[in-house]
Amino acid sequence: MLRPLFAALAAGVACAAAQAAPVSPADVLRRLHDPHGGLIVIAHRGCHDAAPGHGFGTAPENSRLALQRCVAMGVDVMETDIRRTRDGHLVVMHDERVDRTTDGTGRVSDLTLAQLRALHLRTDEGGPDAAATAEGVPTLDELLALAKGRIVLNLDVKDAIYAEVVDAVRRAGAADRVIVKTSAGIASPPLAAMTPYDRVPFAVIPTTGDPRAAEIPAIVARQMAGRVKPVAIELPVIPESALPAIAERAARAGVPLWINTLFEGFVTGVGGDAAARRDPDAVWGRLADRGVRLFQTDAVEALLRYRAARRPAR
User: Fold this and answer.
1) Parallel, antiparallel, or unpaired for β 90-92 and 77-84?
2) 3 state SS of 280
3) For residue 264, what pLDDT is reported?
4) Does residue 94 have an active-site annotation?
5) Which residues does residue 182 pair with via DSSP β-bridges, in sequence order?
6) Each residue's pLDDT tens digit, 181-240
7) CB-side exposure of 108: number of CA atoms within 13 Å?
8) Rounded alpha-carbon distances, angstroms, from residue 258 to 104, 205, 235, 284, 294
9) pTM strictly above 0.90
């Protein structure tokens, strides 16, 4: 008797996911600041992974199509990567070279925008066996325009071009719908209060050479001491034993924690996306119960389904 009931409940959740309500970037940032704002779903390089519950196959990573699918699925944030072409244009590309993700070859910094425009993005995460698609390499300006009013963009700036990226964001009127991030060590001053980071919502990635990650609570405290505060702390790879002290310091400072469950996961011993697909409570639930609210993943549909079904911890 119970199995049909559970099947009906699961079908209801899947149906609700397939008909996701539009996400407001302003509401996402409000929820990010709210300790009771629930889980925030961040799609790593967009929604490129197949989402059969929504009727979607794969899409090229960091593409317009990957953004549009995130919007259709109700994703809160799309993480994406920014580089600069030889002639000074800001484009969306993760790797230093175009070889993995397109049907071309060469360094992004050696190619002009016109040369990049001639390339075709390969589907999903690319590679020599991935099919080339009709999708081209977008510019930052194009992605900002496409995202307007629909989704928050997390900009992972791959070159020393932060001032140019922030300027492009400001010119697009997008300063209230992006998150820019960079790393900070134990000796770094409070970066969110420094130009150009103080002109946009900004997240910090603490870095340490200590495999125990024992310095990270102190890095969090120092980064939260400036006149402008980071909107989130994105954790590097850490042992699970380090998480309680980090979560306690972040909670005291009023800043949410962001964890990647990509690959094998960034909290050693907990598991990554593959494990989360099999048992979401053992990965996403375990981390959420320890105070994590922002999850960056390639398993976007599975995380959305889990968020819809999850009962908040009491």
Assistant:
1) antiparallel
2) helix
3) 96
4) yes
5) 204
6) 999 999 999 999 999 999 999 999 999 999 999 999 999 999 999 999 999 999 999 999
7) 24
8) 34, 9, 6, 12, 4
9) yes
| Bridge partners of residue 79, in order along the sequence | 44, 154
Domain CATH code at residue 64: 3.20.20.190
Predicted confidence at residue 246, as pLDDT, reads 98
CA 49, CA 106: separation in Å to the nearest integer?
25
- Tokens 């997390």 — which residue? 154
In the set 48, 54, 89, 94, the catalytic residue is 94
Peptide bond into 196 cis (omega under 30): yes
Question: Which residue is catalytic, options 36, 44, 54, 120?
Answer: 44
Q: At what angle do helices 300-309 and 64-73 cross, to 10 degrees?
A: 10
212, two tokens: 């125990």
Taking 50 as the pLDDT cut, the residues of the chain under it are 1-17, 314
- Asked whether residue 186 is assigned to any structural domain, the reply reads yes
In-domain check, residue 90: no
Question: What does the DSSP assignment read for 43-98?
Answer: EETSS-S-BGGGTB----TTSHHHHHHHHHHT-SEEEEEEEE-TTS-EEE-SSSBS
Block residue for tokens 């409570």: 281
Predicted pLDDT at 138 = 98
Distance CA 282, CA 171 (A): 43
SS3 at position 245:
helix
Q: How far apart are CA 309 and CA 312, in angstroms?
A: 10
pLDDT of 231 reads: 98
Domain hosting 158: range is 24-82+150-309
| Six token digits for residue 37 | 């704002």
Residue 61 domain-assigned (yes or no): yes
- In a domain, residue 97? The reply is no
The total number of structural domains in the chain stands at 1
Q: Residue 35: count other Cβ atoms within 10 Å of its Cβ.
A: 11
The pLDDT assigned to 18 comes to 53
* Residue 33 falls in the annotated catalytic set: no
